[in-house]
Amino acid sequence: MSVEAHEVIPIPMPREESIPQAARRKLSSPWASGLVIFITLLWTIPTFGLLVTSLRPKDQAQSSGWWTAFTDPVFTLSNYAEVLTGGQTIPGGITPYFFNSFAIALPAAIFPLVVATMAAYALAWIPFRGATFVFFGIFALQVIPLQMSLLPLLQMFNLGWSIGPIPIFPDLNQAGSNQSIFYGTYIPLWIAHTMFALPLAIFLLHNFIRQLPRELFEAARVDGASHFLIFRKLVLPLTVPAIASFAIFQFLWVWNDLLVALTFAGGTPDVAPITAYLANIKGTYGAQLHLITAGAFIAIVVPLIVFFSLQRFFVRGLLAGSVKG
Amino acid sequence: MTAMKRRRGAALLAGGIAATMLLAACGGSSDEAASDSAGGDTAAEETTETTETTEDAGAGDAVAAGCEAYADMMGNEGSTVTLFTSILPPEQQLFEQAWADFESCTGIDIVYEGSDQFEAQLPTRIAGGNAPDIAFIPQPGLLAKLVESGGPVAAPASVSANVDSYWNPAWKAYGTVGDTFYAAPLGSNMKSFVWYSPKYFAEWGIEVPTTWDEMFAAADAIAAAGVKPFCGGIESGGATGWPATDWLEQIVLRTQGGEVYDKWVAGEVKFDSPEIKGAMDVLQGWMKNPDYANGGFGDVQTIATTAFQDAGGPILNGECAMLQQASFYANFWENFQPGTTIAEDGDVFAFYLPEVDAAVAPNPVVGGGEFVTAFADRPEVQAVQTYLSSPEFATSKAALGTWVSANSGVPLDTYANPIDRLSAEFLTNPDGTFRFDASDLMPAAVGAGAEWTEMTAWFAEDKPTDEVLKAIDAAWPAS
Amino acid sequence: MEELGAGLAKVGTGVAAVAIVLGLLLLIFFIGARAKGRLQSPVAIVVFLGPAILLLAYGLIVPAFRTTVGSFQNASGQDWVGFANYTWIFTAPGNSTFLINTILWLIIAPVLSTGLGLTLALLLDRMRRESVSKSLIFMPMAISFVGAGIIWGLIYEYRDPSKPQVGLLSQVVMWLGVEDPPNWLLWQPFNNFLLMVIMIWIQVGFAMVVLSAAIKAIPSDVVEAAELDGATGYRLFSKVTIPMIRGTLIVVLTTIMIAVLKIFDIVRTMTNGNFGTQVVANEMYAQAFVAFDVGRGSALAVVLFVAVIPLIVYNVVQLRKERAIR
Description:
The complex is a heterotrimer.
Chain A: H1 3-8, H2 21-27, H3 30-54, H4 58-63, H5 78-85, H6 95-125, H7 131-140, H8 147-159, E1 161-163, E2 166-169, H9 187-211, H10 214-222, H11 227-256, H12 259-264, H13 274-284, H14 289-324
Antiparallel strand pairs in A: 1-2
Helix pairs in contact in A: 3-14, 5-14, 6-9, 6-11, 6-13, 7-9, 9-11, 9-14, 11-14, 13-14
Chain B: H1 2-14, H2 17-29, E1 80-85, H3 91-98, H4 100-106, E2 109-114, H5 118-127, E3 134-137, H6 140-149, H7 157-166, H8 169-174, E4 176-177, E5 180-181, E6 184-190, E7 193-196, H9 198-204, H10 212-224, H11 242-266, H12 274-284, H13 302-305, H14 313-316, E8 322-324, H15 333-336, E9 349-352, E10 364-374, H16 379-388, H17 391-398, H18 418-427, E11 433-436, H19 438-441, H20 444-460, H21 465-475
Parallel strand pairs in B: 1-2, 1-3, 10-11
Antiparallel strand pairs in B: 3-10, 4-5, 6-10, 7-8, 7-9
Helix pairs in contact in B: 1-2, 11-12, 20-21
Chain C: H1 2-32, H2 40-70, H3 84-91, H4 95-125, H5 131-138, H6 145-156, H7 168-175, H8 190-216, H9 220-228, H10 233-261, H11 265-270, H12 280-290, H13 294-325
């Protein structure tokens, strides 16, 4: 937030090579490289241990540390086969949950982005009284622990909500049943995730959108373009890096969520995400390390793919928001 | 429902989350509980072998072949009943198998949802207006709490009649809150078992103990041979500590008798009383005795970090001799070693945790179980409730193994597994002193809160007994 | 195959939902764009900001209000108890554990994450092939807490020293010559630190990536000028680099602090708050959802967000300063 840093940030992305090559070479040292490699190894070992354990047969996995797999290499893919489709130990497979996680995470990553980008634009470039107050208010909402929102929200989805006689949200229960029309769908989950994501999303996107050059907007307004047109033709294309980064962030968050999913969608194979499956097998098959680790690895493989393939975007957008603070 | 809507405004003004919990309940429980779809006893006994059934099972009167037992539960084709429970796979699959016939005959689809977050999720969903149709509640204390804040629907007459004919009245009392009967018992655990390996007992020359003193004599003999005789594990995720509360309950019932036990459950005998403190001292000399525990895992402290599912492992290779755990532990042995046989001459078996003093409590048994609680009174929900309380269901489920019901309508020879048969004998023994798991009967703040965490601290940190007992008492709700 | 078909159908619903929402939005845009003259701005404000405000009001503001009210009520929310729940939090014996632990978490985890992140960012800035390291260090961020619990369970697992070890940490210290490693998760008070390590493991990547980008954004002429003045190494770092990225540092630190305050998953999955590792957020969950004491649960939630308010105020003040200059 220091003024200097703020003024100098190129838009929309800082240069990759800002310090001259000569300076870089001079500064680089084998010491530094060694240290970085050491920390990198340290950071990777836990996950690597998970992968190795998941590839070991049951007996080995339970009775010896995973590192002994290198002196006594016995590997198998059968743990994965069992977890994917169900087998002798675990009757139900992870597969339906895997797809649920996609069906939950895709819309739950996109909806908050759409809403947040629009709000961020309004707060940044449509002048109105109280805009600053609204912005800081939204920023401050980050402090609310989402656990405390679960019950009121659930009540709203299922029982409706009204202030006195004025209905604010309709009662969506099917006639004669205590199941809301949302029951067994992902809809409440998408909405809940959208709500919880908004403060951070608006905050980050606002910081990005505010940096766009003022002249751009002034020129467009002079030409008589409406806010809707400006938003579609100017803001959206220019904001892509930030949107993409936040989309990845939100996708990871939703994919990894357990609490919100369990509360709003329940734990049946029809709707529950992969984390619910993982939590359940961890609870029942505590001793079956070879299967739990295989399940855990399947669950993290998608976030890892998403992350590794899109990390360029990720870093950019994150930077845009955070560097500006 | 209308009353609920009218009062919702008031709830918002009051603002409290729990205030709305109360209101949410008004919708469910006020309706009259009488059912017209399933009256009286199940039709099972009257079922005739000869039937002139037609193949179109849709109509109410005509019942397809093989479906005669469900005649009273017909007429709900195409309906769905949602079920929420803490029972997870592989047990889930056995349940689904047990009621598959019922489903195909009646056309009712039972949607099963199991979660290890059951205890936290159920009240949230009820208060949130998203209650399941039926829940299997393992804690009568939780049932009472839910009834107090609203949600459960009184059981229909047909369920009540089933329970009257097939269960010990004590079981009906656990499903009753105030004067209203809500929930029929389902499965039952016989918790007073000690698991051991017949093979290693023979190797060490140990006889299966039949008295409390014999058990400790055996323990001393095994300890002298260099093996820690007992193992235990109380780690269980969010429920860490529960096996320790079971141990305490066993001792309280055995040394203090049923009357003190009941007063303890009711909060009239405090934890910090000579009775309970005495029981803790016995436990101190048993599971917290460094000469006795924790076989196969290390020192006494490891009891706190060992998962209860893992605790029995060392018995199979002779690193530990005895594990006090419930009948359902039979399900876990296969996990340690595929092909493990559970039999008196097999790899592993269980003996009855002996009584301490027949004058105080003859044949004491601590048990647990689930209670089928409904949150809706639609005919198909009541049909499922009725079915689950019938001996037909219990027999069908028991035949699949490793499951016991205290339903006396299940013929004892249905239980293929010797442990199950033994459990059923004890659970239905008219001369026994049967008591339900105390922590499941106590208010959640104690039975699922302080007692768990404090007992865990007692093992893990060697927290002084006095402090542990005082802290549990302090958690007892004020009202 | 059947499973695959059903699975794809599910994903299809998700995609369809996105398409429908975007379509509706386009329609609203189309209609909104027809507004002319003085109506133009108000219509735009309502359309752009309305959905966000509504969602936030329903999802966060109203619940926060209810929670605050609930914190002055008893366990079942039926009677008013004044400040009794707050008195309980700060005076009940045993509660000092989670209060002290939370403060430790709040200081140690963010500072170490940010410090290590900054160190890595500086070191990486001097390396040629930085992207592999960066990715691998960042990777834990993509892993769920459930997964992290399983991963670290494999590290902190305790076995009797006479047996083959399964936990990596025990094995490593035994290789280093310790004969009887402690049962890590019981090892008070250091077990708190072992849990923080998990959080640091997850957060360092975030700190590193953001700070590394901020360092790269320092204009080269500033660095060159400083170097011409003879500044190198530590001087360059403390006089140029740190002041230039101060703002970013603060944001990273506060973001991690907020995350730490709300953290309950790690504690819940690793120790469930036993063995003296309880923290406020997990105690809140246990009170509200396990013991069903909504009053105490709400009061703990209020304590949490009151604790975060200074952080937010500080950030807002910084933001306002920056805006004023702009």
